[in-house]
Design a protein that fits this description.
49% of the residues are buried. The longest helix is centred in the last third of the chain and has 18 residues. By secondary structure, the protein is of the alpha+beta class. The radius of gyration is 25 Å and the shape is globular. Strand 11 and strand 12 form a beta hairpin. The N and C termini lie far apart (55 Å). The strands form five sheets. The protein has an eight-stranded mixed sheet, with no helix packed on it. The structure holds tryptophan and zinc ion. Tryptophan binds next to helix 5.
């Protein structure tokens, strides 16, 4: 910056003198330490600075009866600074050998930080490989909200669900959603068990007493979406709405699981028509018997369920493949971009399936929760207020309501266009709430500042929706009682249905 200023503001000899002064300093290899975190206010140590991972090759051997993991991680990365040292995120497990570009490196561990000093500095722009050999008894991470994530042992294997910070409980990584990478996961388990990971099952090798599963995920994936859920599973490979599907089910859950899982093709059809093409090459599910977990997770391509899921939950996790997995947040406090959207998609499926309409659900919720019901309205979904509130019910329910309110505010066709533009513009990348608001304003031509303030950021019950709630059959068309920012806009809710999902749930 300063050099540029000198060059442009001074002339002739003076500029050359400035260059002469500056070049030697820049030419010297200044090697620096990569940062131990990426500045997330909720998880300051999550992720690391100075490099970017391109691919993880994970080779895991797991013995469920003693919960023992033996593994090698090969991490292919590129330095984005001249690095004398860098960190990986990694917890608990014992490292027996670590090399960088084939040479043994010095390591130090502090909490989740694995500090690595390679024999030679890593030059900016250059690729490098970290190989970590490790073993031990993996255990979950306890989140600020008290939930467990990461490697969660079950009675016959492990349920591996790493949102928001569990990935380092089973592999060394740059644990942040902005550093997406491709994965090859090779996992060996005792015969009779199945290990389910992300993407395509490219190979299965049967040994005498063990079995190896090789999984490939070739679309960029955030660390928290990786899994190797293991157990005694029945497996079914098929197609769902044309997408290759791999479904693994714990026999104890098989009876109950069939109902919701059989709807997957229809859910994918609805969601592809609504959100655009399914973003990945494979789909499916793993339905485990892990009653202690208490949640399902949208692991990329293959959601995992701790027990028999409802249809709503399956629709929710499938919608996350677009909202969260393909388009991922930049900061954990933007979790509304995941949960609000997946919740709205749940409601959309239920309406499509003949249940209550999204609009009626919105109106019922709005009506039945007064301003005094602060637990229902707080924290506001755009600002959870702390890591312990990331998965509070308001992020989901008020978050889904915010989207339905937006649909009423801008009209259904514009709303669907906003969703599709969002997913197209940021596919396989990251984006934040501000960008969503800007896009909504650009697509609608409306000033939505006040609207989003009310629905996403202000504590308490959003005002001015009372009258709309009473006129549930007309709100989307007239928008007569929207908040002050509401402007009449062209294109009623009924027009332009061609690109859109079934008129049944779009029409007011
Ligand atoms: N993202 C998951 C879902 O809604 C839920 C989830 C993941 C979760 N990790 C969690 C909930 C930790 C509570 C605690 O599908
Ligand atoms: Zn969710």
């Amino acid at each position: 910056m300063r050099a540029r200023f000198l060059l442009t503001s001074l002339g002739g000899l003076a500029a050359m003198a400035a260059v002469a002064l500056i070049l030697p300093a820049a030419g010297q290899a200044d090697f620096v330490k990569g940062s131990p975190g990426l500045g997330d206010p909720y998880f300051p140590n999550a992720g690391n600075g100075g490099y970017d991972v391109g691919r993880y090759y994970l080779r895991l051997h797991y013995k469920p009866n003693v919960n023992r993991l033996r593994a090698v991680a090969n991490i292919h990365a590129r330095a984005i600074k001249n690095l004398s040292r860098f960190d990986l995120d990694f917890r608990h497990l014992r490292i027996s050998r670590l090399t960088v570009n084939g040479k043994k490196a010095r390591i130090k561990r502090r909490g989740q930080e694995l500090k690595i000093t390679p024999r030679h500095g890593l030059r900016k722009g250059k690729k490098f490989t970290v190989r970590v050999r490790y073993r031990g008894h993996p255990r979950p991470v306890t989140d600020p909200d008290g939930a467990k994530d990461g490697w969660i042992p079950t009675d016959d294997g492990a349920f591996v669900a790493s949102e928001p910070q569990g990935a380092p409980s089973w592999f060394p990584c740059n644990d942040y959603p902005t550093d997406k990478a491709r994965y090859r996961i090779r996992v060996t388990v005792p015969k009779g068990k199945v290990a389910v990971a992300n993407g395509t099952l490219v190979k299965r090798v049967v040994h005498k007493r063990r079995k190896t599963f090789v999984w490939d995920e070739n679309s960029p994936m955030a660390t928290y979406l990786a899994t190797v859920t293991t157990g005694k599973f029945g497996v079914e490979q098929s197609r769902a709405n044309g997408i290759p599907s791999y479904v693994a089910i714990d026999p104890r859950e098989a009876m109950g699981a069939a109902e919701a899982l059989s709807k997957m093709p229809a859910m994918l059809r609805l969601q592809e028509r609504s959100f655009g093409a399914y973003p990945f090459g494979t789909t499916g599910a793993a339905v485990d018997h892990a009653p202690s977990v208490g949640y399902a997770l949208e692991t990329q391509t293959r959601p995992i369920y701790d027990t028999v899921p409802s249809q709503a939950t399956v629709a929710h996790e499938l919608a996350h493949q677009w909202f969260g997995d393909s388009v991922s947040l930049k900061r954990w406090r933007q979790i509304w971009l995941n949960e609000g959207f997946a919740t709205w998609a749940e409601w959309q499926w239920q309406e499509h399936d003949g249940g209550v309409s999204v609009k009626k659900r919105f109106n019922d919720l709005y009506r039945s929760h007064g301003a005094g019901d602060t637990n229902f309205w707080n924290p506001p979904p755009g600002d959870p207020g702390g890591a312990e509130h990331l998965f509070d019910l308001t992020i989901y329910v008020r978050g889904g309501m915010a989207l339905e309110a937006l649909r009423q505010e801008v009209g259904a066709p514009t709303f669907m266009r906003i969703l599709r533009d969002w997913l197209r513009d940021h596919a396989y990348g990251n984006a934040g709430i501000k960008q969503f608001i800007e896009l909504a304003e650009a697509d609608s031509g409306q000033d939505l500042d006040h609207f989003f303030q009310e629905w996403l950021y202000k504590r308490g019950k959003p005002r001015n929706w009372g009258n709309s709630a009473l006129r549930e059959d007309h709100v989307a068309v007239t928008r007569a009682h929207g908040p002050p920012s509401a402007k009449p806009s062209g294109g009623g809710a009924i027009g332009q249905l061609r690109l859109s999902p079934p008129a049944g749930w779009l029409a007011p």
